């Protein structure tokens, strides 16, 4: 049955749309308010066309300005970084997507689309937040709106702007180097070209934005978790700031990261996922109370094969479903204890659906068919128009981050306790953690981060901020069993050719 579907797709949709994803610059030079109004039409549950159009754009196909089927907003770049980390394998190379990421050939070419797409996406999102900030807080962004509603809109815009810079820092720098100049800073929508700034200034800008955002939420009495959890609220902002501090890495910043992540843990708003929840599919924000932030997707969003689900989920009518699967590193899978419920999130070779129908995807595939799957969970009812949500942040991240920064500070007891609090649900016996300390404790926390957050776009940043190495699995198509240092230039995105050609002051 799978072969028939594969042939049909190959002759129709896929061969017709998978040619080289040429840059589409003219139609995406700017994101005007009218553009944002049109974008928001894809998600009718969003109320404010200007601000909430940003959330719609974050899940939109081709948001990176190309026609590539790996171009669909933040979750598309999560796949990029997960593949570079070595935790996510490209199991086959049927249609070619991601193959030149996995073998580094496009990573080393500053004119390639994988280097262009994230840069284009994040900077156009930044420009759009600047339009909102300018309209509410004046040209210099310092005016405080009078109404609570406008304060909240401004708080969200500043937090989103910082989040975009946070992703740029992770992807385009080798790690925190205060004096390295890579990223231009745009504080207003009227700035056309800006030179690259020292990384220290970028971090100062992110921290300032996030602190001001939290103050605005507090001033508007809007510090409670939002029921729908599909927007950046006060709690999500706190989580982003915890990540920024952890990435900056000095002792004072690590202390702040530990404090913020602990506040989120202790808030009581986000229970840890149950054993059953860890195997429920990660497909609906409303069914995952441990999620801080997700992207709600309905038929009106109009996503299909060009989506994160299309690339990863075998129960979606798209690439993974016809054999172009992405899976876990063999060695990472084998490192999961047999009694750990998370081992059931991955399937070695054959996947059985809710009707008992079984399909084989080859040996050593380690497909996440028990973690991420469309709500139907049936092969003959494959999800064609995406109705499964995206996860952007969940409380388990804060447990792992808190454990990590405490371990880096030498607070081993606190680090071990919070790690065990999370692992208790997953594998019961956590006594192996007790004997760990120092670098071994940090390494185990990163190991658990790889297991827990596989496929969620988090481990790449964790390894880089800890200055560790990436080791690829023996089932990796291009670089099996090879180890790469965190600052290997092949694993870091290049400032794209378009920026160097079109920004005459970049190197000033």
Automatic annotation (TrEMBL):
Subcellular location, record wording: Cell outer membrane
Sequence ranges assigned to domain SusD-like N-terminal in this UniProt record: 81-218
Keywords: Cell outer membrane, Membrane, Signal
Pfam family, one: SusD_RagB
GO cellular component, one term: cell outer membrane
Limits of the RagB/SusD domain: 365-486
Name of the protein in question: RagB/SusD family nutrient uptake outer membrane protein
């Amino acid at each position: 049955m799978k072969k028939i579907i594969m042939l049909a797709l190959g002759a129709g949709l896929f061969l017709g749309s998978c040619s080289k994803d040429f840059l589409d610059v003219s139609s995406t030079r700017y994101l005007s308010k009218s553009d944002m109004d049109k974008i928001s039409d894809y998600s009718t549950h969003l109320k404010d066309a200007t601000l909430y159009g940003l959330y719609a754009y974050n899940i939109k196909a081709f948001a990176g300005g190309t026609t590539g089927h790996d171009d669909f907003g933040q979750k598309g770049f999560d796949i990029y970084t997960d593949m570079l980390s070595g935790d996510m394998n490209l199991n086959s190379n049927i249609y070619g997507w991601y193959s030149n990421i996995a073998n580094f050939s496009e990573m080393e070419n500053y004119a390639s689309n994988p280097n262009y797409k994230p840069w284009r996406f994040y900077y156009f999102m930044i420009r759009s937040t600047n339009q909102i900030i300018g309209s509410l807080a004046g040209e210099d962004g310092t005016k405080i709106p009078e109404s609570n509603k406008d304060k909240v809109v401004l708080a969200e815009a500043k937090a989103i702007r910082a989040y975009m810079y946070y992703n740029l820092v992770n992807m385009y720098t080798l790690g925190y180097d205060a004096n390295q100049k890579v990223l231009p800073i745009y504080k207003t929508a009227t700035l056309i070209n800006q030179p690259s700034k020292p990384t220290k200034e970028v971090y100062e800008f992110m921290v300032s934005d996030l602190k001001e955002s939290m103050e605005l939420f507090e001033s508007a009495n809007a510090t409670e978790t939002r029921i729908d959890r599909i927007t950046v609220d006060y709690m999500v902002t706190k989580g982003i700031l915890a990540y920024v501090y952890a990435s900056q890495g000095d002792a004072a910043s690590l202390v702040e990261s530990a404090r913020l992540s602990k506040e989120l843990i202790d808030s009581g708003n986000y229970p840890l996922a149950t054993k059953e929840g860890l195997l429920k599919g990660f497909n609906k924000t409303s069914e995952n109370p441990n999620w801080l932030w997700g992207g709600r997707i309905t038929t009106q969003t109009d996503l299909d094969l060009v989506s994160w689900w299309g690339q990863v989920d075998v129960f979606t009518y798209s690439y993974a479903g016809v054999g172009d699967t992405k899976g876990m590193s063999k060695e990472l899978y084998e490192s999961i204890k047999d009694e750990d419920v998370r081992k059931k999130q991955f399937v070695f070779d054959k996947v059985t659906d809710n009707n008992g129908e079984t399909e084989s995807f080859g040996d050593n595939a380690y497909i996440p068919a028990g973690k991420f799957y469309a709500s139907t969970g049936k092969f003959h009812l494959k999800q064609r128009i995406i109705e499964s949500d995206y996860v952007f942040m969940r409380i388990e991240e804060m447990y792992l981050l808190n454990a990590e920064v405490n371990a880096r500070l030498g607070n081993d007891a606190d680090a071990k306790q919070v790690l065990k609090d999370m692992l208790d649900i997953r594998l019961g016996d956590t006594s192996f953690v007790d004997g760990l300390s120092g670098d071994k404790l940090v390494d185990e926390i990163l190991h658990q981060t790889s297991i827990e957050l596989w496929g969620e776009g988090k481990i790449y940043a964790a390894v880089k901020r800890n200055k560790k190495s990436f080791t690829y699995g023996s089932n990796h198509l291009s670089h099996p069993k090879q180890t790469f240092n965190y600052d290997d230039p092949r694993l870091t995105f290049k400032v794209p050719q378009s920026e160097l050609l079109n920004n005459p002051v970049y190197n000033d």
